[in-house]
Design brief:
The complex is a heterodimer of chains A (372) and B (376). In chain A, 66% of the residues lie in helices and 0% in strands. Chain A is an all-alpha fold. In chain A, helix 2 packs across helix 11. Chain A is globular and about 70 Å long. With 376 residues, chain B is an alpha+beta fold. Chain B contains 16 helices and eight strands. In chain B, the strands form three sheets. A three-stranded antiparallel beta sheet of chain B has the order 1-2-3. Chain B has a three-stranded antiparallel beta sheet with strand order 6-7-8. Chain B has a two-stranded antiparallel ribbon with strand order 4-5. In chain B, helix 7 packs antiparallel against helix 13. Chain B is globular. The chains are: A mainly alpha (372), B alpha+beta (376). Chains A and B meet through helix 7, helix 10 and helix 13 of A and helix 5, helix 6, helix 9 and helix 15 of B.
């Protein structure tokens, strides 16, 4: 795809014909990566602002309102502050691992943005193993978190790191299993294909959410498991401010801390984007086919739709965070292995049987064929 | 072949929880020996906030000691003030005007509500829900406003005097208190809806750190912690002082409604219910309060007779007992304060064995300890 884009650019601008094709391809890659990263950073910054506003609203207070209009620039101020902070590395810390850990976490979280289907043609790289890639690359976070916990040479951080490792590894399974129904229905691991499979004439009933009862449950199972995978309340036990002081990143300060912080918001976006793409029809809306619109408008429109759905799910995560208390570590593990894992397996089996019995048709399609 | 345990021996981990830790409610240090996440032993280490308040008592006069009692349990200064006043009055046999006693009861019960609000809020924050804390603070703010009207202070009130109170109630105070009660009463069910019966919250607390009634009595738990174990003992009823016999209220006890009798949830619910009872007392006190003076005649050079006295009052955190020996001079000869939070720490080591680290936080929160009172 990139190469065809590069060729079309060369065709449009004859001056470039002397330049080797791979440099242009590379340049496009860098530009795309920069756009995605910029988006991710701006999103994370704004998400912290929104989180604080939501928290303020729920907690009967105002939230940030000093920097910029209605406090909108608070995240910039915070970012600058974190950049200027002294970079403290504890004397007894394992310096190399300590420095490495935040990057791993950050990369693990933000590399997943590459395959998020923002719109009809808005996807940095439409990998044919999209979902698999996301699951794999976000697993890098575990390594980073464990390294952070271990290298800090702090017992609270160690406990937090261990908790995080156990939790994220456990919840990867239900997360993956809950996403598989969408893959089964679309017959593809590519996120763009999965989104496309949910279009059609049925409006919101074309979404995988309403495909059959099992996918309906799958969505909620996924959302709960994903909450745990991103270490959000009520599953925030690796950070657990009131128990572990703040878990694996307790010794981090300044910009290194900011990396963990941004990664958390990046993770929230990724899991919400996956939920939107796999269950809520991605960039589809009823009665308007973005792919039929002119390319520019179609992309803009589908981007808006996709972001609305995703950010809506992010907002629900924030809402949950400021409402619910936290589970205990053993209850959390019990929930994963005793409830979520069996349920997601059962769901997967159910979806598979459904697809086998009804030749891949969902309830809306069956109703449609029944009526007319 | 070696077993796994031999091949990979594990060690106990020694962790210092505190003195700087967000959930130890101050500068409590808990020495945790853990096997992974499971607590083998949790030993509380107190004394980081020791200010020799009892020794200071021997150096200042009886009236001068009043501000120091503010610093005993700073979340319930009024109760500590009043306890000191009642002790000295018992020693010297001073008759306090009835209006002053009513005022004391009103401020004590208001302070009990505000103290329990903090207990409720910080406990839920310990459990990971930060929103109820802000709600509790919002309500407490109005109590602070009321106290500011009375005495100008919002935390350390220094309002009660030996022989009465420092000033009569300001204009409209009783109406304002009534307004607050009308505002506050529906809030308690709201808390229950928001968090008390939340499934996660109940799961975290039910059956955790059970203090059996025998243990609770044996280890000297008092106040809500004792009642949480189902022992209906409240000094306001069982050893009535001041004008408490004139009020009709219930003693809240734990019932084991969500788990075992005497678990963290029971202790928590006792506090929630006690707020309602305090509202009841306040309404009656406002209706009954007589007119009259608010200060008895106490000589400026106040010298109580030679003798000793022990007085105990039901404070929000339990039984605050003050033992006082007078040698007939202007200074007390000896002063000893039985602080409920300090005595509560006795049972801590026993009750936390085999729990998770997160439960230790729950235990500290459910006992609602306060450090300046532990260390004095």
């Amino acid at each position: 795809m990139l190469e065809s884009l590069a060729i079309s650019i060369v065709n449009a601008v004859p001056v470039l014909s002397g330049v080797p094709l791979w440099t242009i391809t590379l340049l496009i890659m860098v530009v795309v990566a920069a756009i995605v990263l910029t988006f991710a950073m701006v999103y994370s910054g704004l998400a912290t602002y929104v989180e604080r506003k939501v928290a303020g609203d729920i907690q009967a207070r105002v939230g940030p309102n000093r920097v910029g209009p209605v406090g909108l620039l608070q995240f910039l101020a915070d970012g600058i502050k974190l950049l200027l902070k002294e970079d403290i590395i504890p004397a007894k810390a394992d310096r190399f691992l300590f420095v490495l850990a935040p990057y791993l976490v950050f990369v693990g979280s933000f590399a997943a943005f590459v395959v998020v289907p923002f719109g009809v043609g808005l996807i940095a790289s439409d990998l044919n193993i999209g979902i698999y890639y996301v699951m794999a690359i976000t697993s890098l976070v575990v390594v980073g978190v464990m390294l952070a916990g271990w290298s800090s040479n702090n017992k609270w951080a160690l406990l937090g790191g261990m908790r995080a490792a156990a939790q994220i590894v456990s919840y990867e399974i239900p997360v993956g299993m809950a996403l598989l129904p969408a893959v089964l229905i679309a017959g593809s691991l590519s996120l763009q294909d999965i989104v496309r499979s949910q279009g059609g004439l049925f409006g919101i009933f074309g979404w995988n959410l309403f495909h059959n009862p099992f996918t309906f449950f799958s969505f909620f199972l996924y959302y709960v498991a994903a909450l745990a995978e991103t270490n959000r309340t009520p599953f925030d036990i690796p950070e657990a401010e009131s128990e572990l002081v703040s878990g694996y990143h307790v010794e981090y300060s300044g910009i290194r801390f900011a990396f963990f912080f941004l990664a958390e918001y990046g993770d929230m976006f990724i899991v919400s984007a996956l939920a939107a793409a796999c269950f809520l029809g991605g960039w589809h809306v009823p009665f308007l086919d973005a792919e039929a619109l002119p390319a520019a408008w179609g992309n803009l429109f589908s981007l808006g739709v996709f972001l609305t759905k995703t950010l809506g799910l992010v907002l629900v995560m924030m809402w949950i965070r400021w409402t619910l208390p936290r589970l205990r570590v053993d209850q959390l593990m019990r929930m994963a292995w005793k409830y979520l894992v069996p349920l997601t397996f059962f769901n997967l089996l159910g979806v598979s049987l459904w697809l086998l019995l009804f030749h891949g048709k969902g309830i809306p399609q069956m109703m449609a064929s029944f009526i007319g | 072949m070696k077993s796994h345990a031999e091949a990979l021996p594990t060690q106990e981990m020694l962790i210092n929880m505190g003195p700087q830790h967000p959930s130890t409610h101050g500068v409590l240090r808990v020495i945790l020996r853990t096997d992974g996440e499971v607590v083998v032993n949790a030993k509380p280490d107190v004394g980081y906030l020791h200010r020799a308040l009892e020794k200071i008592g021997e150096r200042v006069t009886y009236a001068q000691y009043m501000p120091f009692t503010d610093r005993l349990d700073y979340l319930a200064s009024m109760n500590c003030n009043a306890a000191w006043a009642w002790t000295v009055e018992k020693l010297a046999g001073i008759e306090v005007p009835e209006r002053a006693e009513y005022i004391r009861v009103i401020v004590c019960e208001l302070n009990r509500i505000s103290s329990h609000l903090i207990a409720f809020g910080s406990f839920t924050a310990d459990m990971g829900a930060f929103t109820p804390f802000l709600y509790a603070i919002r309500e407490r703010e109005r109590i602070n406003d009321l106290f500011e009207d009375i005495c100008g202070n919002r935390l350390t009130y220094n309002y009660v005097r030996i022989g009465g109170v420092s000033a009569d109630l300001p204009d409209r105070f009783l109406e304002k208190t009534k307004e607050f009660l009308d505002y506050f009463e529906p809030k308690v069910p709201e808390y229950n809806k928001l968090i008390s019966y939340n499934k996660i919250f109940v799961h975290r607390l039910a059956n955790v750190a059970v203090a059996t009634p025998e243990d609770a009595v044996g280890y000297g738990l008092t106040g809500p912690n004792l009642r949480g174990s189902g022992v209906p003992f409240d000094l306001r009823k069982n050893e009535p002082y001041s004008v408490y016999p004139k009020f009709d209220f219930d003693v809240c006890v734990g019932t084991g409604e969500r788990g075992t009798l005497g678990d963290c949830f029971d202790r928590y619910m006792v506090r929630i219910n006690e707020m309602k009872e305090s509202v009841k007392i306040l309404r009656q006190a406002i209706a009954q309060i007589p007119e009259g003076p608010v200060m008895a005649k106490v000589p400026r050079m106040f010298k109580p007779p030679v003798g000793e006295v022990y007085f105990r009052a039901e404070n929000p955190r339990g039984e605050t007992g003050i033992y006082l020996i007078s040698d007939g001079t202007v200074n007390p000869y000896r002063l000893k304060i039985r602080a409920p939070s300090f005595v509560t720490m006795n049972i801590f080591e026993k009750i936390t064995k085999g729990l998770m680290i997160a439960d230790v936080v729950a235990v500290i929160g459910s006992f609602d300890i306060i450090l300046p009172e532990i260390d004095r």
